[in-house]
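Agenda item 2: 3-isopropylmalic acid complex prediction
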Amino acid sequence: MKIAVLAGDGIGPEVTREAVRVLEALSLPGLALTYADVGGVAYHRTGHPLPPETLEIARNSDAILFGAVGDPACDSLERHLRPEQAILGLRKELGLFANLRPARVFKGLEDASALRPEVAGAIDLLIVRELNGDVYFGEKGIRTLADGRRQGWDMMSYADDEVRRIAHVGFKAAQGRRGKLCSVDKANVLETSQLWRDVVCEVAAEYPQVELSHMYVDNAAMQLVRNPGQFDVIVTGNLFGDILSDQASMCVGSIGLLASASLSEGTLGLYEPIHGSAPDIAGQGKANPMATVLSAAMLLRHSLGLEAKAAQVEAAVAKTLADGVRGADLGGSHGTVAIGDAILERL
Ligand code: IPM
Ligand code: MG
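Presented output:
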């Protein structure tokens, strides 16, 4: 059980430390952790946000526990040297194409949501976000037009095989849940989305038990706050998935609670909280580590096949919340380590 721990920037190291304590408390036989630099920290030490040694360690692991990348001191660097390139590079180099971002309201947290409690209480959805394509990885640049105006441009595209493989992930996930899949696109405007929709419809023929619907992304953003309980699994592209998953996190109550798994065609996966490096609170011991602990649970489930252990960790987090332990993100006063301690006690 070789786990690469890439804690990264900002609050990454603090929250990752608590998730590692949880993994170690499970006394898994053969658990071996290897730490490596990534993001702004790696740039400052080695001149690159994703040093080759880090990529090799990640490639040779069974799973990667990832904290966060992002450092305001790096914002004016050339794009390929910015910390964000590390996570994009890992996703691409390791073929981590399927991003699972579950969002559900924990019992007792209905009031934390930006939505009315009765609306929030019904949230139990999974966003399946494509992670290797779309406008994220297309050609891009800033050019000067003949008339002297500067123009920024980014190429959006999806090939049919890219859509097909993520569609299969979406349908299979729906089969294992409530049997409903909503494909989100912008087919009324974008050709990329038209192809997306056509391919999802083709794949649907293989999953007659799954009820498929399509929704434009603007409507999906609206429905997520109007009636989020209608969603079971949402499958969407890289950019729309990025936006909708942040939105879903606030529907749940806090971005400090949302975990994610980025999966390849094999068992290798990368597990990270969706919240990012939060430089404004870094190093203060107030970040909520729950999203990272829940990401470690997904690691146990998807890369190590330890479903019972995963469920045990998730239950410990749920119990911690039910007992009233709250980080600053939820209006409480528990710090990072105190939350970690509380989870460990219940584990
Ligand atoms: C996420 C993040 C990343 C993304 C950034 C850090 C590049 O927002 O994982 O959602 O846009 O995918
Ligand atoms: Mg994001």
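Discussion summary: The mean pLDDT is 96.
Owner for follow-up: CH.
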